[in-house]
């Protein structure tokens, strides 16, 4: 396995370009199953999760050409099985369920895996598809779904699940009649997928709100799309500037997708302002301790909680960070403590008392965003920090060490 070795204490300076969003690209790639016509994707990030879903889609019959500009075409579906060996490594693999069922009338998909940050059951996906007329059974860890043709239905989601909204929206795009999703997810990635489906021929309204109406089409056509910028990557590098006392300029960043994060970072003292096509991020003289509570969009994203906690570890007082989305998302806390953080866990809250500095030490990454928080802490730490199991980072950050090196960081990837 690879590890990162970081010599910390260097203020980051320079310019950085944000990659296409992983969480936008994954459902949009899965949507290639909905049509036999080619789809052209621009700004596709080169990440291990992208490689995984491309492998899965290839097994199902999608033919790919290109890299960051990618052509995908599923002229014929050659398999209806998403196997355990692929699905267990990435939860988003469940996104092939809706398109397969809608186009082919059958799907055999392993129950998913992914980061161990708490239970994320797919029962809302299955319940919604059942309401649309699917017959679904669970057999040996697999979802066996069948339907002659899905039919529009009114579906209430108990929680605004992102992948559930996306799966049902894709299924509804080929269903007979109109589907209404209530309490739908509102994330920018959901909006981007809805826009793509509209370009393909589905009639969709309400995306970005909590009620989405989808009128299905008899068939969908190919299209051209550009993957939206990765808002979590942008937020992570904003924190990197703040935690190291630096100043950076970010390209390909949509501040509208980051309002809750930007508000909290400004509250912590960072300067964040647009300058032409760039966003300038400047660290404060003193990091102000700031409370935060994770919520579904447009609230503060759970995917930024660990990174924000790393920043608060160097705050000038006490901050309370409450995790309302995933119950096991404090696994980075013991590792931050190894670097000198003062954090106490009380139920779903972390009480963070600021310390003057981090001190480098060997640490182990436990999941994608936890890994990012350790990199941030290592960049600010005195001495050397070694971060083991950085394969988690490769799932969601494109060439992270190279981008940080371009900002002046002393970070290298080495074989463990």
UniProtKB/TrEMBL annotation:
Reactions listed under catalytic activity: phosphoenolpyruvate + UDP-N-acetyl-alpha-D-glucosamine = UDP-N-acetyl-3-O-(1-carboxyvinyl)-alpha-D-glucosamine + phosphate
Active site: residue positions: 115 (proton donor)
Nucleotide-binding as UniProt keyword: no
UniProt binding sites for UDP-N-acetyl-alpha-D-glucosamine: 91, 120-124, 303, 325
UniProt-annotated binding residues for phosphoenolpyruvate: 22-23
Keywords noted in UniProt: Cell cycle, Cell division, Cell shape, Cell wall biogenesis/degradation, Cytoplasm, Peptidoglycan synthesis, Pyruvate, Transferase
Enzyme Commission number(s): 2.5.1.7
One GO BP annotation of this record: regulation of cell shape
Pfam families: EPSP_synthase
Pathway connected to this protein: Cell wall biogenesis; peptidoglycan biosynthesis
A GO MF label: UDP-N-acetylglucosamine 1-carboxyvinyltransferase activity
GO cellular component: cytoplasm
InterPro entries for this protein: Enolpyruvate_Tfrase_dom, Enolpyruvate_Tfrase_sf, MurA_subfamily, RNA3'P_cycl/enolpyr_Trfase_a/b, UDP_GlcNAc_COvinyl_MurA
Record-linked CDD domains: UdpNAET
UniProt-annotated location(s): Cytoplasm
Domain Enolpyruvate transferase: from-to ranges: 8-404
Role according to the record: Cell wall formation. Adds enolpyruvyl to UDP-N-acetylglucosamine.
Record protein name field: UDP-N-acetylglucosamine 1-carboxyvinyltransferase
